[in-house]
Design a protein that fits this description.
Strands 2-1-3-4 form a four-stranded parallel beta sheet, sandwiched between helices. Strands 5-6-7-8 form a four-stranded antiparallel beta sheet, with no helix packed on it. The model has no long low-confidence stretch (mean pLDDT 87). It is globular, with a radius of gyration of 18 Å. The longest helix has 19 residues. It folds into two domains: 146 residues, 3-Layer(aba) Sandwich (Rossmann fold); 45 residues, no CATH class. The chain contains six helices and eight strands; from the N terminus they run βαααβαβαβαββββ.
């Protein structure tokens, strides 16, 4: 049985995420979606994508700002008939965690990271957290993110604009330092191994 997917987005509104999914699943450009699909193939693509999304167990939330509400929502979904297979959090530095007025932002981000790791273990689901990196390629505001992670995947621009370099500097259950260049199609916001 396919389990549920919960997307917590603090980076962009839920409707923009849905647009990107429709573009990807329907092979329709984001511009076509914004302007309205007029060609028959685009209309078919949008219709097909919407059918796939409607039959999926996907929940996108853009109204959960703190770790307590994220954990409560994930636990509730895990107890539902569909269960919870994957939790996405975009992005971790925007999640609030109230540790009191004397707490530093680094400590709060570390607590969010720790809470997400423990939540994944508790619920038996995959947790994918997106983070911003500083100029040195380290997670902003907390080293704990890299320490808590089972694996870290870094996406960065390559010398050729249409490619992105994907590397895995940290991985507990596999090789570290592996990388690959993937073609990025901006029209549908997708990666392809070409």
């Amino acid at each position: 049985m396919n389990k549920g997917i919960l997307v917590i987005s603090l980076e962009m509104p839920a409707n923009q995420i849905i647009d990107r999914l429709v573009a990807r699943l329907g092979s329709v450009s984001l511009r076509t979606l914004a302007e309205g699909a007029k060609l028959e193939r685009d209309i078919r693509g949008v219709h097909s994508a919407i059918q796939k999304l409607n039959s999926s167990r996907l929940v996108v939330r853009d109204d959960l700002y703190d770790i307590a509400n994220i954990c409560a929502t994930a636990r509730a979904m895990a107890k539902s008939p569909d269960g919870l297979g994957v939790l996405f959090v975009d992005y971790i530095q925007l999640v609030r965690c109230d540790l009191g007025k004397d707490s530093s932002r680094e400590r709060e981000v570390a607590e969010v990271s720790r809470s997400l790791r423990l939540l994944g273990i508790e619920l038996g689901c995959l947790v994918i957290s997106i983070t911003q990196l500083n100029e040195q390629g380290k997670a902003r505001e907390s080293r704990a993110i890299g320490q808590d992670a089972t694996a870290v995947m870094v996406v960065k621009l390559s010398d050729e604009a249409e490619f992105r370099e994907i590397s895995i500097p940290i991985q507990r259950n596999g090789p570290c330092g592996v990388s690959a260049n993937l073609r990025f199609h901006g029209k549908t916001a997708t990666f392809h191994n070409e």
